[in-house]
Design goal:
Elements: H1 4-22, H2 29-53, H3 68-98, H4 106-132, H5 138-153, H6 160-177, H7 182-205
Helix pairs in contact: 2-3, 2-7, 4-5, 5-6, 5-7, 6-7
Length: 207
């Protein structure tokens, strides 16, 4: 006959199995660290370009032409995004292979779907803002909608993602208030916060 401790261990194992089946737990800390590094490098390049060219203006609806430097920074942001997404797929894929798991399963589908809705909404809004020349709002909006997507997706993965999402939303709101410092808040949100989050996740779940 099983002891009370054995029953407790069985219940813990069942709970762990149910959590693995309902949540995407193949995330690792390294994608966060690498995404943060990409963002800091991109922010540094943008910062240097701003002071070299002195062309980056916070436009209004009256001025519709797009300065060349803004186009360059927008393309740079897309490159950083592509690198971050590629890294975010690569490391979980390696972990899934190591654990003999399938990366694209029911839990990962739920995570992607729930994160895509606010991300897609924010992306469309940023493109509209970009087309209208309201460049000062681009960084704050990317932070806010990225935070909302993390908050929405946190229900299907590690709880720590929720706190990262809240931090990104707060930074986005601060960037909206301190208009003109969007690049700084962008570097903190996508750079520093990702690195801190990635290191924490690595030490907690992978060590």
């Amino acid at each position: 006959m099983k002891t009370e401790q054995e029953y407790i261990n069985d219940l813990s194992e069942i709970r762990s199995m149910m959590e693995r089946s309902s949540k995407f737990l193949t995330l690792t800390g390294w994608p966060g660290i690498m995404a943060g590094i990409y963002a800091l490098i991109g922010a540094f390049i943008a910062y240097r370009s701003y002071y070299k060219n002195d062309q980056l203006v916070y436009n209004t609806l009256e001025r519709q032409e797009v300065p060349g430097i803004v186009n360059d920074i927008f393309l740079l942001a897309l490159v950083v995004l592509a690198l971050a997404i590629g890294t975010a797929i690569y490391f979980p894929y390696k972990k899934a292979l190591k654990n003999r798991e399938t990366l694209w399963n029911a839990s990962s589908k739920r995570l992607v779907i729930n994160m895509t809705i606010p991300l897609l909404t924010g992306g469309i809004l940023v493109l509209i803002i970009y087309s209208k020349g309201l460049y000062a709002l681009m960084a704050p909006l990317t932070l806010v909608f990225y935070g909302l997507s993390l908050l929405q997706g946190s229900k299907y993965t590690y709880e720590e993602v929720k706190y990262l999402g809240i931090s990104e939303i707060v930074l986005g709101l601060m960037a909206t208030y301190f208009i003109g410092y969007g690049l700084l808040f962008w570097a903190i949100g996508f750079g520093v916060m990702h690195i801190v989050y990635g290191i924490y996740m690595h030490l907690k779940y992978e060590k």
